[in-house]
Amino acid sequence: MIMIIIGSIALLCIVPMIHIFALSFSGNRALMSGEVFLWPVDWNLNSYKEIFSDMAMIRSLMLTVILVTVYTGIALAMTTIAAYALSRRDFKGKNIMFGMIIITMFFNPGIIPNYLLMKELHLLDSLASLILPIAINAFLLIIMKTSFSQIPTELEDSAWMDGCNHFRFLIQIVLPLQVPILVTIALYSAVDRWNMFQDALFYINNIDLYPLQLKLYQLVINSQVNDATAQEGFNSSTPIPQGLQSASIVFATLPIILVYPWVQKYFISGRLVGAVKG
Fold first, then answer.
1. Other CB atoms closer than 10 Å to residue 184's CB: what's the count?
2. pLDDT tens per residue, range 245-262
3. Is the backbone of residue 110 left (phi > 0), alpha (psi -120 to 50) or beta?
4. Concatenated DSSP letters for the chain?
5. Among 145, 152, 210, 229, which has the minimal tally of Cβ within 10 Å of its Cβ?
């Protein structure tokens, strides 16, 4: 019974994506007549050809790949350093600092204060505004801190007797033992940054710095506006074809989907390690 429920839920998640794939490979006639459901009708690659001929879309993809790579590296490094410090037994005041970090999970200053802060720091229209404010995720920090706390004290004491300092202990002993949790944190960070567009919507005005998800958001919004104005009888720009919209969604989603199978084994074990407190 449980397998049937899980299978039904998985099917509900997969069917919409299959439908989008089918739309992206179908012809305009079939799309306009509503013939497409789970299999392409009038199979063609016209929508994808149009996307790959759009240099703005390709530029956004390259920019997003760079942004995600840099952000993931910075987030992983800062989370690791913070988690290691908070997991130390001799770190005075760590409970107070840890409590302050937890508070940030429940209380957020909001959009306007964040925007004003970015403006005062002169970070608007820069990739730094898409990296620094979210460099450390409190939830991921808690997972990593919990994992680091499970390292046996005997191993730590032995390292100190051999002359290790904190940096050497972290690099040579802690991190090799925490590969699953590191990959999990990296995957979470990369997926979060890849799917995020709201901060770019507020902080980025330069069209050359638009990440891929913001381009996709504008494509969908512009299509909805064009449809609404057409229904009201107003003049509007040429509606964006449904096939092109679907192909854009696939174009923006497929890269991160292809990454997941390579890190799945680390992802599962990392979540288990970080979720159990020793």
1. 25
2. 788 888 888 887 777 776
3. left
4. -HHHHHHHHHHHHHHHHHHHHHHHTS-HHHHHHT--SSS-SS---HHHHHHHT-HHHHHHHHHHHHHHHHHHHHHHHHHHHHHHHHT-TT-TTHHHHHHHHHHTTT----HHHHHHHHHHTT-TTSGGGGTGGGSS-HHHHHHHHHHHHTS-HHHHHHHHHTT--HHHHIIIIIHHHTHHHHHHHHHHHHHHHHH--HHHHHH---GGG--HHHHHHHHHHHHHHHHHHHHTT---PPPPPHHHHHHHHHHHHHHHHHHHHHHHHHHHHHHHHHHS--
5. 152
Indicate the pTM of the whole model.
Answer: 0.81
- Structure tokens, 231: 């229904």
Q: Which two tokens stand for residue 127?
A: 């990739």
Give Cα separations from 97 to 81, 91, 110, 207 (angstroms).
14, 10, 22, 39
Rounded Cα gap, residues 174 and 84, in angstroms: 9
Mean confidence (pLDDT) of the chain: 81
Domain positions in the chain: 1-44, 54-275
The CA–CA distances, whole Å, from 206 to 6, 97, 114, 210, 212 equal 44, 37, 19, 7, 13
Which whole-number Å values give the CA distances from 237 to 12, 166, 240, 241, in the listed order?
35, 61, 9, 12
How many other C-beta atoms are found inside a 10 Å radius of the C-beta of residue 264?
12
For 180, residues 6+ apart whose C-beta sits below 8 A from its C-beta are 266, 267, 269, 270, 273
Is residue 143 a contact partner of residue 109, using CB atoms and an 8 Å limit? no
Please state the CATH superfamily assignment of the domain spanning residues 54-275 in this structure.
Answer: MetI-like (1.10.3720.10)
> At residue 43, what is the residue type?
W
